[in-house]
Amino acid sequence: MVIYYICNVISYLIWIYSILLVIDAITSWLPFLANSVVGRLLNKIIDPYLNLFRRGPIGKLAFSTGIDISPVIGIFILYIIQDLIQNLSYKFI
After folding, report:
1. Contact, 78 vs 14, CB < 8 A?
2. Residue 23's closest CA among 8, 45, 48, 51?
3. What is the per-residue pLDDT across 25-63, written as a single tens digit (0 to 9) for each?
4. Rounded distance, CA 62 to CA 54, Å?
5. What's the pTM?
6. If you ran DSSP here, which 8-state letter would residue 75 be given?
7. Proportion of the chain above pLDDT 90, given as a percent
8. Which residues have C-beta within 8 Å of that of residue 73, sequence separation ≥ 6?
9. Can you tell me where the transmembrane regions are (predicted)?
């Protein structure tokens, strides 16, 4: 039963992080928000995760087109992980 609650907390934290990814992507479009205290704090929280996807072929594609798709890929990966954790938690009910 404890594992069920731990999985639910992890799933909830992944959901919050996904929301932060969306907020960070929106603030990157608005320079006055990206350079604010909140924008810099979000960058410190989000950029280490997104840098995993900015390297390699995805990063080269974003550099050549000027469109950074790493937040979309990051959210997709987080949702896959969240789904796996929720499926795991249902086995411990």
Report:
1. yes
2. 45
3. 899 888 888 888 988 999 999 999 998 888 877 666 666
4. 8
5. 0.85
6. H
7. 44
8. 53, 58
9. 12-34, 61-81
